[in-house]
Known about the structure:
tRNA nucleotidyltransferase activity (chains A, B, C, D, E, F), Ribosomal_Su5_D2-typ_SF (chains A, B, C, D, E, F), tRNA-binding (chains A, B, C, D, E, F), RNase_PH_CS (chains A, B, C, D, E, F), alpha+beta
Amino acid sequence: MTMTRPSGRASDQLRPVTLQRQYTRHAEGSVLVSFGDTRVLCTASIEDRVPPWLRGKGEGWITAEYGMLPRATGTRTQREAARGSQGGRTLEIQRLIGRSLRACINRQALGERVITLDCDVIQADGGTRTAAITGAYVALVDAVNFLMKRENLKRNPVVGAVAAVSVGIYQGVPVLDLDYAEDSACDTDMNVVMNDGGGFIEVQGTAEGHAFRREEMDAMLRLAEKGIAELVTAQCAALAEG
Amino acid sequence: MTMTRPSGRASDQLRPVTLQRQYTRHAEGSVLVSFGDTRVLCTASIEDRVPPWLRGKGEGWITAEYGMLPRATGTRTQREAARGSQGGRTLEIQRLIGRSLRACINRQALGERVITLDCDVIQADGGTRTAAITGAYVALVDAVNFLMKRENLKRNPVVGAVAAVSVGIYQGVPVLDLDYAEDSACDTDMNVVMNDGGGFIEVQGTAEGHAFRREEMDAMLRLAEKGIAELVTAQCAALAEG
Amino acid sequence: MTMTRPSGRASDQLRPVTLQRQYTRHAEGSVLVSFGDTRVLCTASIEDRVPPWLRGKGEGWITAEYGMLPRATGTRTQREAARGSQGGRTLEIQRLIGRSLRACINRQALGERVITLDCDVIQADGGTRTAAITGAYVALVDAVNFLMKRENLKRNPVVGAVAAVSVGIYQGVPVLDLDYAEDSACDTDMNVVMNDGGGFIEVQGTAEGHAFRREEMDAMLRLAEKGIAELVTAQCAALAEG
Amino acid sequence: MTMTRPSGRASDQLRPVTLQRQYTRHAEGSVLVSFGDTRVLCTASIEDRVPPWLRGKGEGWITAEYGMLPRATGTRTQREAARGSQGGRTLEIQRLIGRSLRACINRQALGERVITLDCDVIQADGGTRTAAITGAYVALVDAVNFLMKRENLKRNPVVGAVAAVSVGIYQGVPVLDLDYAEDSACDTDMNVVMNDGGGFIEVQGTAEGHAFRREEMDAMLRLAEKGIAELVTAQCAALAEG
Amino acid sequence: MTMTRPSGRASDQLRPVTLQRQYTRHAEGSVLVSFGDTRVLCTASIEDRVPPWLRGKGEGWITAEYGMLPRATGTRTQREAARGSQGGRTLEIQRLIGRSLRACINRQALGERVITLDCDVIQADGGTRTAAITGAYVALVDAVNFLMKRENLKRNPVVGAVAAVSVGIYQGVPVLDLDYAEDSACDTDMNVVMNDGGGFIEVQGTAEGHAFRREEMDAMLRLAEKGIAELVTAQCAALAEG
Amino acid sequence: MTMTRPSGRASDQLRPVTLQRQYTRHAEGSVLVSFGDTRVLCTASIEDRVPPWLRGKGEGWITAEYGMLPRATGTRTQREAARGSQGGRTLEIQRLIGRSLRACINRQALGERVITLDCDVIQADGGTRTAAITGAYVALVDAVNFLMKRENLKRNPVVGAVAAVSVGIYQGVPVLDLDYAEDSACDTDMNVVMNDGGGFIEVQGTAEGHAFRREEMDAMLRLAEKGIAELVTAQCAALAEG
Lengths: 242, 242, 242, 242, 242, 242
């Protein structure tokens, strides 16, 4: 095919991915994740409380919040705290992050505590939610390890790895890990969350322009499988350090 | 397979679907859609204005709002107007409905006007968002036909049909059109929106329990294709009346 | 007198009234009430809790909420949940419904529980608050009967019937049960809530144009007494079924 | 009758009423009204604008806002500005004040301007809304006179006087102008707004305990007529000064 | 120097100050303070509860709220309760008042209770926050004395007097107690809160036009010391009555 | 004196200060400022609009917003966007930043545009507002230089440098640039904003424990003067690069 991606990447090529642990010092887990120019700070905070509807059940909870600094984007976006509410896009993304990370945790083994994953976008260039999930997993493991050391948990509540990537149809061609230039011009955009066993946790595909066909969907899912395998490798490498 | 659905339906069987047009008299389109015990009132309202960011561009907009009457559910849920904001689930669903319906409209042909699709759940038994999309399409067509008669539009802005259905893995078996009993106990839940040409508009799959495999996904997509073909037939039949 | 009502009704004639019980299946009481083209869904929901200021006092509470579907009206009105608050008119109406229904309940006999009456207007053509009160009474009785069967209450907490109707001065003539065409053009509008013993529970009269005289008020009250007697008969008939 | 009012007043006796004009110096009208220990500051503010829905129609608008200082009451009530919204009671009262004062104004003669009546309760002892209406009328006349002097209006837009009083059934006896001790213990409470020609502008009666009978209503209305005549006299006397 | 203040006052001269105790009858302390045309009603309300973070610690809390009646000012300002939130200026002022008054209280001696100081501006002419602090101190002492009589506290929790005044540079000259005409035209505005021992509790200086020099700051602080000494004398005199 | 600061610094010693320009790539100015472990991202965004009250006046505006990432602090603080409003502390700080930066800009020379300074705390260890002001100045200069290059402004609107530092009394000794350990235990805390000409722009001193004396204030102001001179040097050095 003769399509050229704006970044010059191959159609099945991720952007450079970095996972910088201990980026800030207060949080039990703190990771700056970069997917190219997209940079998201993911912190994991442990609190010894559970939501009211979980009290006394002997299990914990994982929740997520997502934010975008006002000038993470090309033009300034209004601060949600100043506007007085979180928008629909923000709520949708943080619900997705929370569900995705809960899929890799045994909540009984966690015990009656909450781990909150705050994912704040420092700089945006497409794919902030998939970078957030990928980085939040590493922050979550760091927080759980902190807990394991201090609390002598009987079992490790982390039951697998979780990573996410976007795929899409750009100028008729399935591509992996869309950046902003591709995302704003693509026909179809799909976010895929998977575990390290090759199972699907979330698939969210949207036709922006024309509806997509089954064979396009299959091609996108294959790209996502490839990308996520590489992301899981990067997560393992980051966690193996220090 | 020996699994029995709570409703006794076959695994590829929709609930009885009805689409009652002109359910209320003020709206340009007004449809009560039932998927079994799930009943949603979908109204389409035409306004001769566009959002600020579309002014002077010669094209229109389709938007949607979703609500649930407090006692549409088994236990009363708090009224969002009383609470002071729409929840994340509501925002997510109404964004989905709006995107889905925009996929079947030529916005230039619509001209500078907005059609708002209000989807209010009178009674809930699972699948309210897919029933809403399926019913809203019929209300939208009625509203467009109202406009065609009155305004002498040059072209019909409706460029295809849109319908939606849920599929899932219930007790290990892929099933079509989950009701509440299945939805609250299933392993995987996927909402699929398609057009009448067999193209995908939205695919949103979530692993509630264990992650799902590619072959399960394929089976679910096949069920969705079958169900949506039946729903499109029901939409056509409803629109052919009167 | 030579005045003709837009609907052709006699000045002391109600619109056709229907009270359809068990309209939805989850609520302990669920009634669709119609006063002509005005249709309001009234559900009664029982919860085994009381507001904080009633805890430990051995008595219950009746409360009401009121809503209007966005396209219940001739032009679409903004959804209160989307706007972020209930308007003054909504709060005023739901306070009125709550006070009216509390007047027919012995709160000691009810015990420590709350019954919430949700009155949602499906279609509006004037008189939505009086239809809501009239229908909510029937839903409340159904909910109390549900409770009597299940809980073996010693006494029936319902101590009388409550119904409501509007009266007004239209083109100089006192009329009963104003529809929208009359309501938007009348000089005086009065909502009257009474019990089945002929006692007044609420009287709310407003001069829209010129101030009204004592003799006009007397004439309106006589019409209200007649109309409410007929509404109480309709309530009894509806409750006698099934 | 042997009933004694807590204040020792006769059943048809108002509390001492004072209307202190020019209480503050910035507002075009500023009146401190006292009904006994109830003290309300009523200011009238003129603005040369109209609400959007009145633009270009050549007529003005009268609106009202009502507030209660947190410690106007026996125990401190939460500040509505701190809570983030005005309660249902506040909205209901300010809508009543606005409607009542609009009844004495010719809006064409007022021209395209808004007069806002702010009624803030400094000290509460029952009857704050009726005191507010009675005082706001005097502030409104002062503001209109300010406008007449400065703007050379062709006609005086004030077309009559408006005053308000509460009546009720206290220990079985109809009484005029309830104070807090009576209000919190009465069976029925009715607020009556009338003009100086003996016409009714608003009647809002509520049975707190047992439903009230027609003859009780008639007795209350007679008391209201007497009280309002005295209030109109007090308004005239206050306006005749200075 | 030849500068003349708009009010004709000497540069080190306060406006006439009055402190009228028992201005309203419900609050445990209630003071109307006037600094010239600036009039603020300060009430002190005692509640036998503490904020959650102080429970069981055996100490109390002092908090403050500030409000401005809509027409306290030359042109009407929007009611914060209607707008749905307190503005930044309001929050800043009430935080200042609360901190200032806490500086004169021994919270252990107060015991587990909260005293709330509500400072509501009836009429504004500059210096509302300094008048509020000065008046709130007198209301606080009255409330504490009420408590001492009723509760037989072992120690008086009031450990000193607190007063506040503004100073500024007006037309190049340091002046004491700016009124609105000066405040809106001055180069520098400084609010100073001190105790009766000559210690500083708060100093908040802002250069409105050019930055101010150390020697100007020194001159302003000397004026503040003089003014506050006079205000403390006025507070003592007011408290010595009755 | 024998007092030892928790950090081991001399009493007149700043923490290590860094100003990293072009920290993110979208904003016209983007600076990560560190005062020791306190790290604040300051971005300057130019928009070609002015607030309504400045339209047509030929001058611009500088405004600021402040935020704290939820886990910038030792324990997680609630996200203001999730809570639905900015707290009093946030509003107070962003008002201070805005006023401070406006003091170094000629608004006529800026022309009809707004520069918004977003100061987001990535990691907090005391002194976030003074770090924010110091960093925001550098971001503002970068944004103005961007504008000068692109727009060929006649004059440079920056008329001086602005920096800020905190000073306090810690264990009886005046110290410069308090970190969190000192800030939470000090008797007095003062934030000082000055320009590069030695003029004061803001002085905000608060006695946390005992009131402070004039001589203590003088000592603190001298420390502030020294610290700000060093900060201005650091700003110049950062701006001289690149």
